[in-house]
Design goal:
single chain, 5-stranded parallel β-sheet, 186 residues, Rossmann fold, alpha/beta
Length: 186
């Protein structure tokens, strides 16, 4: 079984970052995990951003349908005992319940080591996580990014354009490394 990681709402919210992460999970580079609370938070944020309810519901349904074993349950009773930031206790509780190896989040400071170390859960920035996946399977990651760009009906339709969008999503160390490798292959 692939390495299980909980994807926090903040890494699922940016559409192209979410697509990148989930495409790499489909390639069995890791096992994505989330809770009903994470999906509901994603849903609320997407609706607040003005995305139509039918599209949001379709996305959430598609995510759960594509990754049948991703949704963690049975963590609710543990939420109050988690020692991280109050608003992220549900994320850590889901990670503990799922025996996840890591939480992928932009909110690193919300999960101080004393809250995660007892459970041996790493808290990883999505850019660092993507760099780890790139080191693990460089050809797969490059191929999937190219496929992702080509599959878009609207911009970004090219790898350079996709990398620009991912830069703005907060994973510039990863996109810089992709650019470097593409230039080297040139």
């Amino acid at each position: 079984m692939a390495f299980g990681v909980v994807l926090d709402t903040c890494v699922l919210y940016p559409a192209h970052l979410r697509d990148t992460l989930l495409r790499l999970a489909e390639r069995d580079l890791y096992r994505p995990l989330w809770s009903g609370d994470i999906i509901e938070e994603l849903r609320r944020n997407l609706l607040k951003a003005g995305i139509a309810e039918q599209h949001v519901d379709g996305l959430c349904s598609e995510m759960n349908g594509a990754f049948l074993d991703a949704e963690v349950s049975g963590y609710e009773a543990m939420i109050d005992s988690m020692a991280c930031d109050d608003k992220d206790r549900h994320v850590l509780a889901a990670a503990v319940r799922a025996d996840a190896g890591a939480i992928i989040t932009f909110n690193i400071s919300d999960f101080p080591p004393q809250s995660t170390d007892p459970f041996e859960i790493d808290v990883i920035h999505p850019g660092d996580f993507l760099l780890d996946l790139l080191d693990l399977a460089p050809a797969v990651v490059l191929e999937e990014l190219t496929r992702q760009a080509a599959a878009n009906r609207r911009d970004p339709k090219t790898l350079p354009a996709l990398l620009g969008v991912l830069d703005r999503s907060g994973v510039s160390a990863f996109t810089d490394e992709i650019r470097r490798r593409v230039t080297q292959r040139g």
